[in-house]
Design a protein that fits this description.
The chain has 22 helices and nine strands. It has about 525 residues and is an alpha+beta fold. It folds into three domains: about 110 residues, Butyryl-CoA Dehydrogenase, subunit A, domain 3, CATH 1.20.140; about 130 residues, Malonyl-CoA decarboxylase, catalytic domain (Aminopeptidase, 3-Layer(aba) Sandwich), CATH 3.40.630.150; about 140 residues, 3-Layer(aba) Sandwich (Aminopeptidase). Helix 3 packs across helix 5 and helix 6 packs across helix 7. The relative contact order is 0.12.
């Protein structure tokens, strides 16, 4: 996931919505020129044709951006992309930030300010002004100063709102609520009444408070281990987000080539699955035989929360390269039979744990069926991000057990592998380029069998081990087909020996498939079942 939301954009409503990654807006002139260059570069026949795309209504955990990157994204100071398709630094590691030093007097003043925000009534104008001042100060601070401010916040809020213990008299039930939260069975009513929750509600009531809180929670998650006192506040905020970002409040909008340039820039930056390499690549993904949808919150109209990219094809897609081929001819929408969801991206690290991806796909399927009544087949072309890590962890004995006697015997005949090969050695062999067709066929056979086992049988606490499988199977999809050499990019090879998987969405079978998953037997297509 890439970085960069901006505060100023929140006050400027926009009619269209989705995108994929946080972006730093490079400025209107840059956006306009980039959009214009994209138009000129795609004037050749085929996918890049200049005809406008109709604005029709017809899914991964990404690395967290660094605190410094978010500072740039808030104020539009970082115009370039910050790393690879995930949006973080290319090495995946954020630089450590040491907290700045606050004087004792500054710390004392900040504690008084925070205590006022914690203890006063929600209607107290002085406390609301104090919250506004803190929000402005925090957003404008350097990364090390933000960390210092967070440390004081953690210390002040760690006492479960005790600075405002007498706040029960403010009329919103805060004092009783705090006690209810600490007591067994206090439940949501107690949580909503705590001083910390009132503190967070105070920020939410400010004009730019909700986007600030989303970014603030991302910082809390990043520094929670170093500042244990943040845990309770971060958990309270996460609980509030589950209400404030309820799917019933979200708006589904299409994004097209005619959408604002600032939104298109964010689409490029937020893309978390298959990096958008150029404006021509983006235009291809928004062409007339494609669709893109995103969920937006009414108070964050320029910030997509999650988006999905859809391709219409005549048959279930087997590799991502053909889907993203800019030179491929446009599909005839009168004849297509399949809608393929080939990229789904969450965009806001601060909304981790707030689930609305399953609702997104179901809403998009409903929209597509309205626009294309003959369309009946819906599937994904998804990565298998945890496969290589799982395979590398297998000992020789565990690998032989997963393969079974028959496949292990076939593997033993391969001269380039030791008879007691470990999972790590198997992974290297699967990624190697074999010259003989017999070896290539064996690699494919064993690779697909291992992927099928990983997706269908490997679990953690009763749930599929692979995060993408957990998402789609939890939506009621079924594992339909393993695709060998479906993603030959470096990322694809690193994640899953270049394999991808189709999850099939049959609207009438979603509930039954979900029950199968609950019963410990995820729904599998015939081709996958034969591999087990």
């Amino acid at each position: 996931m890439k970085d960069e939301p901006i505060m100023s954009a929140m006050s400027d409503p926009v009619s269209l919505s989705p995108s994929l990654m946080d972006a730093t807006m490079a400025g209107a002139s840059t956006s306009a020129s980039a959009s214009a260059s994209a138009s000129s570069s795609s004037s050749s026949p085929g996918r890049g044709a200049p005809e406008s795309v109709a604005d029709v209504s017809a899914p991964v955990p990404s690395p967290k951006p660094s605190l410094g990157a978010r500072l740039g994204q808030w104020f539009g100071r970082g115009a370039g992309k910050s790393g690879g398709p995930g949006g973080g630094p290319k090495d995946g590691k954020d630089a450590k930030v040491a907290p700045a030093t606050l004087s004792p007097r500054a710390q004392s003043a900040l504690r008084r300010q925070l205590t006022q925000c914690l203890s006063a009534r929600l209607t107290d104008s002085a406390a609301n002004d104090a919250a506004r001042d803190f929000m402005t100060r925090y957003a404008a601070a350097s990364p090390d100063m933000q960390l210092a401010l967070l440390a004081v916040v953690a210390e002040t809020c760690a006492s479960d709102g005790n600075p405002g213990a007498e706040a029960g008299k403010d009329g919103d039930g805060a004092g009783a609520g705090a006690s209810a939260k600490r007591a067994p069975g206090g439940g949501l009513a107690g949580a909503l009444g705590s001083a910390r929750v009132r503190f967070l509600k105070r920020f939410n009531a400010l004009p730019d408070g909700l986007p600030f809180l989303v970014r603030w929670r991302a910082d809390m998650l990043e520094h929670r281990a170093a500042l244990p006192g943040l845990a309770a506040l971060e958990e309270d905020l996460g609980s509030l987000f589950s209400t404030w970002f309820d799917v019933g409040l979200l708006e589904l909008h299409p994004i097209t080539w005619d959408s604002p340039a600032s939104l298109l820039e964010k689409l490029m930056r937020y893309e978390a699955v298959h990096e958008i390499s150029s404006w021509a690549d983006l235009r291809n993904r928004l062409d007339s035989d494609r669709r893109c949808y995103a969920f937006f919150h009414p108070r964050m109209p320029r910030e997509p929360l999650i988006f999905v990219e859809v391709a219409f094809v005549p048959e279930m897609a087997a590799d991502v390269h053909s889907l993203l081929d800019e030179k491929a001819p446009l599909e005839d929408l009168r004849r297509v039979r399949w809608a393929i969801f080939y990229s789904i991206s969450n965009t806001q690290p601060g909304l981790r744990g707030v689930s609305f991806g399953n609702f997104l796909l179901k809403r998009v399927i409903d929209e597509l069926q309205v626009d294309f009544p003959k369309l009946r087949n819906f599937a994904t072309l998804s990565p298998i991000p945890g496969f290589n890590d799982w395979l590398k962890s297998l000992s020789a004995q565990a690998l032989a057990q997963v393969l079974g006697p028959k496949r292990a015997k076939l593997l033993a005949q391969e001269a380039s592998l030791a008879s007691d090969a470990s999972g790590a050695q198997m992974m290297m062999w699967l990624q190697s380029s074999a010259e003989r067709k017999a070896v290539q066929a064996l690699q494919r056979s064993l690779g697909e069998a291992l992927a099928a086992h990983y997706l269908a049988r490997e679990t953690v606490r009763g749930q599929p081990r692979d995060p993408v499988a957990r998402f789609h199977l939890g939506n009621g999809a079924r594992v339909e087909r393993i695709n060998w050499h479906a993603d030959l990019s470096k990322k694809g090879a690193k994640q899953s020996c270049a394999m991808m998987v189709n999850y099939l969405y049959e609207p009438d079978e979603l509930d039954a498939n979900l029950q199968r998953l609950i019963d410990g037997e995820p729904a599998l297509g015939r081709a996958v079942a034969r591999l087990l």
